Amino acid sequence: MSGKTTKTIGWILTIVLALFFGLTGMMKIMENSKIIEQTAAIGIDAGTARILGLIEILSLVLFVVPRTGIVGALLLMAYMGGVIATALQHHQPMVMFIFVEALIWVGAVLRFPELGQRLKGAQ
């Protein structure tokens, strides 16, 4: 695969993730009743959900901006790790969360080849 194709696929994944995290983050910030109901079911109050929404949006902005993209990717990966741990703790399905985590990884490695090289251990 050429470098241009790789970057294009990376950006397509970034756009998909931006739509996903942008939507879920804004729904938490605006205290959407369905989201608040779902988070309350696992012990997260509306104020905490709003803070989580802000964290999602901030991490997303960092991920989309090329200069801070790696930091944003790492923050989104950490966030999704917390989501997966919470789902595990509450015996909820995790497949979608793991899929989103994988999309973040793949998108980040395609957009930032240096990240992939670091993971491989190349100097």
Can you give a write-up of this model?
This is DoxX-like protein. The chain crosses the membrane at residues 9-27, 47-65, 70-88, 94-112. Its main location: membrane. The protein is an all-alpha fold and 123 residues long. The protein is 82% helix and 0% strand. Helix 1 runs antiparallel to helix 3. The model has no long low-confidence stretch (mean pLDDT 93).
What's the short story on this structure?
It is a multi-pass membrane protein. The chain is mostly helical and 123 residues long.
Order of helices and strands: HHHHHH
Helix/strand-derived class? mainly alpha
- Helix content bin: over 70%
Q: Specify the overall morphology.
A: elongated
Instruction: Count all strands and give the number.
Output: 0
Number of helices: 6
Largest sheet: none
Please describe the structure with a list of short key phrases separated by commas or semicolons.
123 residues, mainly alpha
Present the secondary structure layout.
Layout: H1 3-29, H2 33-41, H3 46-64, H4 69-89, H5 95-111, H6 113-120
Helix pairs in contact: 1-3, 1-5, 3-4, 4-5, 5-6
